[in-house]
Design goal:
- The structure is a single chain.
- It contains 1 helix and 3 strands, in the order ββαβ.
- It is an alpha+beta fold and 74 residues long.
- Strands 2-1-3 form a 3-stranded antiparallel sheet, with helices on one face.
- β1 (3-20) and β2 (26-33) form a beta hairpin.
- The longest helix is centred in the middle third of the chain and has 12 residues, at 42-53.
- Pfam families: DUF1659.
Length: 74
């Protein structure tokens, strides 16, 4: 049985520091961008994320790429 993964969606998530809670722990806020081109390279997504950081009030903590695939039995 041969199984392949067909990518169907890519999402870019930016995680920003959003202050602290009452115990002094850092809180985070996420911004998600859907329908990202699946052929976009990691470097391209990183460059977009850092460009968007300049437009934000909070410090960028993490850049995430989430790819979703469907497994198909051939």
């Amino acid at each position: 049985m041969a199984v392949t993964a067909d990518m169907v969606n890519t999402q870019l998530k930016l995680v920003f520091e959003n202050g602290t809670d009452e115990e002094g722990n850092v809180t985070y806020r996420r911004k998600s961008f859907n329908n990202v081109k699946m052929v976009a390279t990691e470097e391209q997504l990183y460059n977009v994320a850092t460009a968007l950081e300049a437009l934000q009030q909070n410090l960028l903590s993490t850049i995430e790429r989430n790819d979703r695939s469907i497994l198909v039995d051939l």
